Fold this sequence. Notes:
Elements lengths: L13 E10 L6 E2 L5 E2 L4 E3 L11 E9 L11 E12 L4 E9 L6 E9 L6 E12 L2 E8 L4 E4 L12 E5 L6 H4 L6 E4 L6 E5 L5 H6 L5 H27 L3 E2 L5 E2 L4 H13 L5 H13 L6 H16 L1 H20 L1
Parallel strand pairs: 4-11, 12-14
Antiparallel strand pairs: 1-2, 1-5, 3-4, 5-8, 6-7, 6-9, 7-8, 9-10, 9-11, 13-14, 15-16
Helix pairs in contact: 3-4, 3-6, 3-7, 4-6
Amino acid sequence: MKVYPYRRLTGNVSWRVDKAQLKVEGEPWEDVESKYVSTVERVVALGPDEDRPDWTEARLHLSAVLPAKAMDPTGPWQDVEVVAVLTERATNTRTAVDLSPVSDDGRTRTGELHVHRCDLLDRASLALHVVATVDGVAGRVIATADTEWFVDVIEATPSLARELDVKMVGFASGAGRLRRFKEAPWVVDTTGRIPVVRVNTDFDGLGDLIGADGGNGAEKTVREVLLAQMCSEVWTAVFHSAVGDLEIEDDGTPLFPHGWQGDVLREMLPDMYPDREPEDALREVHGARTGASAAGWGELQSRIHFAASRRAGVPRALSTTIRDLERLTQGDDA
């Protein structure tokens, strides 16, 4: 747990995106339909859609409610402000806006965040911070909302999760960078906006096996194990990619990345360190990678392998396979 040299605000800071509007150059603002703004997924989907024009600017209407203690005049915080910050790493965009008080007690705040389409490439995260003067020092962050929102300019459906992209391609006859992997059944590419698994169709029988829906008992058994193994390798690869590009604060604290990298870490860390908070687990991983932790790189690999196997369902697939093979063997003996 991170320790601060000043009093922090406890309690729930609730906030949301109330609505979104889009603007085409030279045209008035138009409201975005509610189906594109999901309060459950906390996603505003502004990707291409037949019902939506090619917009140049978006306006997000935000609201937040602070705990009562934040506005206590006898408390340790003065000049309390609420700031929403939109960040996208792909374009290095960072936009902030102050939310103004709209209630007599100052707890309820609202504001509008403007986003230019040319500043976003994929998916941006939207976080909310409470800032105040503490012990005479202005601009200290006394709280950060537990939840983030996301602004997605690629997808037209507001979904927090994104499906893995699987492409079937011949390595031997494919691009030059794939030819050197021509003997591999598949490779995982984590350089794009979402991870891509490229399956080698030149690997004899692999494409037919993975793409088949039916088949006899033995084929189904082999396919399930193969897919579980592939998924395990994918989880391992994306985890390494995610922890390899962490932002580090001045005091050495690692921060969760945005986009799928952050999603991957939040999925796997509870399996790797079930007795720790996500922030503490991330600090442990970073320490193991940099040599600052007593737990070495080897122990970290074991934890990654365990979490990846569990996420991919390897234990379940393997148990099912063993039982199926026993039944097939008994059938042959009969």
